[in-house]
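User: Can you help me understand a structure? I only have the sequence.
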Amino acid sequence: MRARLRTELPDEEVRALLDLPVSAVIAFVDGKGFPRLVPCWFVWWEGAFYTTSGSDKFHVRCIRDNPRGSFCVERQELTAERMSNRQVKGVGTFEVLEADVGEWGARIRRKYLGSTPWPVTGDSDGRVVLRLAPERLTAHGGDFTLSRAQGTPRRPRDRRER
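Assistant: Let's start by predicting it. Here is the structure, written out as tokens:
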């Protein structure tokens, strides 16, 4: 396997990755100090990460108590010849917003669903927006060329066969 070393991503590649309709993972700390993770749909807007969630969800309650957290967006592509990985990660303090929930929800749905109608009505009721403007943003990626042997791979020999 031949690897290209992990490299920092240029701004245009960071923006392209954040615009893709792929899920992010947010990280937060629970009341006992354990790290927790939740996948989510999101939008990146004017230097901040936005997602929505039910106001009574466990992760929202934890973020209200301890707003420190992070997010990670990753894109991995694998073919028979190549593996590629790109990541953007942000660390900071979440804000829990109760205004404009419907607008943020609509933006997020457009990113992932395009013009496909959303079957739920009143979807902003009981929801909040989680916003994180990262204090630190890191973005990196790497490519690996996979070398495949011709023919059927051999299985490892058993000790008894030696």
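Now, to help you interpret it: Helices lie at 11-19, 58-65, 101-113. DSSP finds three helices and ten strands in the chain. Let me know which part you'd like to focus on.
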